[in-house]
Amino acid sequence: MVVDRAPTEIDDPGRHWLRAKDVTGFPRNARDGYFPAHDVTRPAATTAADLPPVDGATPGVLPTDAEAVVDAATVADADRLALDSTYLSGKWLVERPPEAVTDLWEGVVADVEAGRFWDAKVSTRAGCEAFGETDHAVLVFTPNYFDRADVDRVRRRLREAHGVTEEIRYRPDVYTLDGVHEETLGPLTDSAAARFRA
């Protein structure tokens, strides 16, 4: 693996994200081995029988300052939308200050390269400036958030191998469909909404 520039060094205008494939050379569609290696159902093979349970107030919880909890029906609607569109990927979000992000990113990229993680990206210095953030966002993706065992396995790996011990949130990609389904998803389109927290 070669990581030629740290995320904190990338200040090229418009280059807001550094993707794992940029440093591993593996495009997402070349990672077919991930599915059998981790016993994950491919999104196209997922059925209504695989819909995840909507358990209590955990899904869709917004930060306490927003004082809003997304109702279970809205979360279930989002899950059905994800199933219908086979748009089942999602990601754990880890935030790190500039002085700590490079070590985490290099470890995450090594796990993508080894097939332990499916995909990842990190905000660059240019991205942090564009988004008005001081911390970098490291996003670690899973291909099918209906597969809770895989989602939890990736979280455990982040905790045990990368020292991510604080609570983090998991956000399905269907929540960020550029407002196309904002009426259906309602408050889930809020950037702070999450399907899981751990």
TrEMBL record:
Keywords: Lyase. One of its GO terms (molecular function) is lyase activity. It comes from the Archaea. Gene3D superfamilies: RNA Cap, Translation Initiation Factor Eif4e. Belongs to the UPF0696 family. This is Phosphothreonine lyase domain-containing protein. The lineage of its organism: Archaea, Methanobacteriati, Methanobacteriota, Stenosarchaea group, Halobacteria.
